[in-house]
Structure formats: structure tokens, C-alpha cells
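Format notes (please read before filing issues)

Several people have asked whether sequences and C-alpha cells are stored in separate files. They are not. Every record keeps both together, in the order shown below: the sequence lines, then the C-alpha cell lines. Line labels are part of the format and must not be stripped during preprocessing.
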Amino acid sequence: MKILVNDKVAPAGISILREAGTVDTYSDIGRDELKNRIACYDALIVRGDTLVDEEVIAAGVNLKVIGRAGLEVDQIDIPAATRHGIMVLNAPQGASASHIEYTMGMLLALSRQIPLAYASVREGVWERESILGTELREKTLGIIGFGRIGAGLAERAGSFRMKILAHDPFISRERGREMGAELTELPILLAHSDYITLHIPLSEDSRHLLNAEAFRLMKDGVRIINCARGGLIDEDALLSALQSGKVAGAALDGFEDEPLPAGHPFLRMRQVVCTPRLAARTEEAENEVAVVVARGVLAALRAEPVSTSLNIPPVSRSVMETIRPYLILVEKMGVLAVHLTGGGIKSVEVSYNGEISAIDTKMLTLGALKGILNPILQEDVNFVNAPEVAKARGISVLEFKSPDTENFVDLITVKIKTDDAVCEVAGTLFGRSQGRIVRINGCRVDVEPKGWLLWIPHENLPGMVGKVGVALGKQGININGMQLAETEDRSVSVMILSVDQDVEREVAHTLTTLGGIYGVKKVVFD
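Then the structure lines:
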């Protein structure tokens, strides 16, 4: 085994690798040099600063596995790796405790103004009278995103006698209570929280989640903590809220532009704590992610099961050849279903009708579950850890099979049951290779799951399609395809639009102001 390690990976992981093969370590070789060196290696291990794009992957003619010592894999081209048959794995849980503890540290530092107090002593001012802290006791902590980190934070904050509100549309209320939090809608959390902390992934839906409108809903004197990702907060809106006093303070470990530019207004504000992406940086976390990724890489090289694989499911070659055309389809069906539903998810059901019911469909069910969970979680969900992640969130997963079907040789149906509703999406293959969604919530459709899709329920009246088309045209958005679907309520129809570019939140909001439009939901398939 020949293994190349770039970036600083903790010695605990390097030691494990060296017991099994030859390991070459580098601190910061660039992309071009990496591309030139990679051909002779079986495995590559990186941290967050190494770009592993398609050219690097193609140059790795002997590569079998790429390991990321950490959680985020934005800099690795996973689809390219999959096309080349290279496994990509990470260490998704290694830094959870560090994130939780760091967020608590930021919470305390912000409340008691510890950085400001230290600066005053360091500068010889001894600024005791003007620095007045506030206690956490009996305050309300609003946690946006209630996965592993959010739930762990609730447990720690509870020991400070804080009241916990949480917003996570995909956690059931019962599960929230079990974990010590009251699950609520986002506007309620914003209006009643003394502290608000973010623990969600950055996506098109979550970008600028805390914007000017959100700040207007908050209590006067609220405090904001972000140890997740830059971009979740509209920094211009936060700056205005800090200047007006609406927000009493902010503790930030992630920014839209990193590193934070010198002279940034946040750096001149006494009530703002800024740190350079340190939430995952502890000795224990560094060691744990290094050990986890080292063991995963060695398991992959030995053709053993890998629990942290992000792209290569552990199935036999013959089964994979049969189910391969369906894998992308079921994952996108899951993506669509979760975007069209609301409320905490209680169960996921995947039904197989027709010829496909005769084969091993476990990986397809995992693919649907992966599509459902990945858009809503901060951690990456893969084919191996999907059942564990669902179980931890109180979601039951059921599979049904029948050789009987109507109209199609094969039909796969993904059904999500939540606190508030049921969403059902069915799909099949056309020509044994082209995935199509053929039914949504009982509506017969023909949707190719790619690009951007808009789901627009509306009054069943003349002129509605024209209204929407004109509004999108004014924004320069081209409609590639359109379907109308009837619902059980004959007074309501649904427009399903495929568009050729992203639809910004403001544009979607404009559509909802048109008379007779009951809502707009955007789904991003690619």
C-alpha cells in the first residue's frame, strides 16, 4: 500500500497507516504538484485545504480511496471519484464534541464579555465598571438545527438551567421532548429566544436564513452565535441589527468571506466575538478524525466494509449492475419528497412494485433515505450511516414489495409521514435507463429529476399560468417545461415548472404575492 497524506494529519492516524504500508506526508503541496505525484499512490488523505478535483482524480490511475480527515468534503469532486471507481470517505463524528463545547464557550464568552474584559486588562485599562455580563440561568436558547450537535448543545445548556427551543422541520415533537427541547416553528423561536445558535448545513434554502426580516422578528437585545458555516447569516443585516441595538452581541466562528478582511466592521465592535473557524480544532478531535480516516482508508484498501463511505455502497457487483440505473432516481425522489413535506418526519416507507420487487433493494431504500436526510442535516449522510442517522432522529424506515403493478413494469414509491402530513413520490425508468417521477401526492406527472423545479399550488382559474410565466420572465428566468396537475380539491391545481436557473428567495416570494398562488416550493436536484 502506498498512501499520500497532504495537509497536517495528526500523528495518531499516521502511525496506524505506517503499520500497514508506505506513507509519504506533505504539509501543503499544491494542486498541480499533487496531480503530478498522485499516479503511484493507492490512497490519498487530505484535510480541508487540499483541492481534489476531476483532473487530480483522473491522474490518480492507481487510486482506490480518498480520505478526508474531518467532516466537510466540499473540496473533493465526489461524482468524479465515483465515475473512476474511487471510494471517498470522511470522519463525520470526530469533531461533534468539539463543536458542542466550542459553542458553549462562545455562549459564555458572549454573555460575560470575557474577550472584552481580557482585552481591557491586557491594555492596562482595568475596565471593571463598564463591563457587565448577563447570566444564562432562566434564559431561552433557540437552537436552529437539532442534529447531533444541536441535541448535544441542548443537553449542556440544560445544565445551566436554560429553557431550550429548537427548530428542525424534520424532527418530530416527541423526539424533541425526549432530547430536552421544545420543537417549534422558526418565527416562534426567533421571537422568544434570548440566544440563537445555528447548527445547519449551508444550502440554497439556508443561505441568509438570518436576514433583515428574521432580525425584525427577534427580541430586542438578542444574542447570536454561529459556529456552523459562513453564509447562514446575512452579515450586512447583522451589522445593522448590532448598530441599532436590536442584537446585543454576536459570537461568530464562520464568515461569508474567509479569512475575515482586515478592517471589517465586526472587528471594531466591542459586542462581537470573532474566531477563525476553530470549532472543530481540539487535540482530541484532531486525533479522532485522523484515527477514523486512517482505519477507513485501510479497510477500503483491504476491500473490507467502510462505515464512512460517501459514495460507494457495499454491495456485490452483480446487484450493483442491476440497481445502478435506479440509484440516482430514488435519491432524487427522496430529495423531492422532503422538500414538499413539512413537520417532523416520523417514518419513511419505500415500496417496490413489479419486477424490481424480486431483487435485493436494500441499497435503493438507503439511497432514498440518503436523499431525504442530506438536504436537512449538517452531517453527511451516506449509504452506510443512513439507518443510524434515521434511528437517532426517531424515524422508522419500512420497505414493502409486491410483484403487482399498474401501467409500469416497475414502480418505486417513496412516502414520508410527518407530524402534519404525508408526501408520496413515485418513479420508474423509461427505456431501462432514464429516471422519471410519474406521480406526486396522487397527481399523475412526468418529471425528469434534474436542475431546478418549482411546485406551485394555485386556484384553478384561467390566467394563472400566464401570471406566473410573466413574473418569471421579468426576472429573466426561462421555463424549460411545465405541467398542470389536478388535486382532489377541484378548485386547486398545481403548476410544476422546470426552469433553467436558480430561483432566488426574493423571486419565489414575489410569486406568492400574485393573486391565487397558495405557495411556492423550490427543489434543487443537481
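For reference, the curators noted about this record: The domain at 1-93+282-312 is CATH 3.40.50.720 (Rossmann fold). The chain has a mean pLDDT of 89.
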